[in-house]
Amino acid sequence: MRVVARNLPDHAPVATDTAYRCEETLVELLTERLDVACDALRESAALLSATERERARRLAFARDRRRFIVARARLRQLLATRLGVRPAAIELTSGPYGKPMLGPRLRASNLRFNASHSADLAVYAFARGREIGVDVEAIRTIPDADEISARFFAAREAAAYAALDVDSRPVAFVNCWTRKEAFLKAVGGGLSYPLDRVEVSLAPGAPATIVRVADTPGDACGWRLASFTPARGFVGAVVVEQWLQ
Ligand SMILES: CC(C)(COP(=O)(O)OP(=O)(O)OC[C@H]1O[C@@H](n2cnc3c(N)ncnc32)[C@H](O)[C@@H]1OP(=O)(O)O)[C@@H](O)C(=O)NCCC(=O)NCCS
To answer: What superfamily in CATH does domain 2-7+26-130 come from?
Structure first.
């Protein structure tokens, strides 16, 4: 997987597993801050479809509403630049489990994308001809992380997590979470996909890898994983399809 990180900070290099570097899959990653001034918010709102404006209106908290508007407008702008159309002309639909995708008129472009948000940070990932999923999370101490890992991680992930010293656990937890979530988002199965079906590496500093998907070893599963640091205090993961016939 070759990753082009357009605006990630210098101190935060993308860490791809060395075994995957020879592959010519180009993945583009971009980050965006979502808390913007009123003018920028107004300009963003003008780019949204009626359905998106209605979705924004239904959000209970003003901060979530503002962030959704900015995130969706930015997605439209990024897609528009790559497709040579106006942002408002981007037609978005969703897969059966809610994965956003281009509408039928633009599907032939082969552009695939996914997005993730955590606090005021959004991350966008693009690839041509390959399904893609991305996830970002802020590194923080989650009070019930030990219980969540024991209950939802795959058995070997939970054992690897439990074997770490307490200081390493917050990063290990978000490593595991973002990697599994990026995989689920690439596949597009949403919450219907069993969480323990995919097993990933999680130890801080170790290469990001898919260990297995069901009984298939990670290097034969048809998906590739990379981890990255989208901003200080955040962890990101991206999963891209290896082959698309
Ligand atoms: C909706 C879900 C895809 C991601 O939710 P999330 O991590 O809370 O939120 P993120 O910001 O990372 O992703 C949201 C974005 O993913 C995209 N998305 C939504 N449904 C998706 C799906 N089925 N597949 C891929 N992408 C999807 C959308 O772009 C969405 O942005 P939008 O709300 O502005 O439209 C879903 O997987 C989920 O709710 N997961 C719950 C958490 C969980 O159990 N994780 C397991 C890890 S151990």
So the answer is: 4'-phosphopantetheinyl transferase domain (3.90.470.20)
